[in-house]
Amino acid sequence: MTQAFRNVAPVLAVLALLAAPVMAQDGGAQQFQSPPQAEFGDEAPLDLPDTAPESGADPALDAAQFDALTRGKTFDTYDSESGLYGVESFLSGQRVIWRDAERCMHGSWDQVGDNICFFYEDKPDQPVCWTYHDRAGWILGRYEGLYELPPIMLYPAQGPISCQSYLGA
Asked: Of the candidates 63, 67, 81, which has an alpha carbon nearest to the alpha carbon of residue 149?
């Protein structure tokens, strides 16, 4: 390998990370994109109401329900503004692996009140909490249950993911 190529290789690696929000499991790069519209049915998640439903109309999943929907599965995570921004594998024992363009890390989750809170290895004392709502084929999440903030959508993906081949690791 020539000296010039050795000097350029790290720059190319960084550019590849910046160009792709998530390094896909299949070895390719997934581009920012909207969630798969065919899976939404009649409910269009990019046009969700920003007010809470009538009491009890859309209850948050509890830990057992969330675990039943996610354990052993991997989900692409979308937000309504920028599209796909991460992938998360849900392992047994309420453990997770989160991967995006900037980091890959392990964590765990637990129910705290109505929220499912994630405790990641980079900031274990700063949980990230969401209420999750089953949408029959996908899961809607609201940061700390706040309806005035844009939701996230979790869609089944291929998996599991790991941090072993992650360039940022």
From this structure: 81
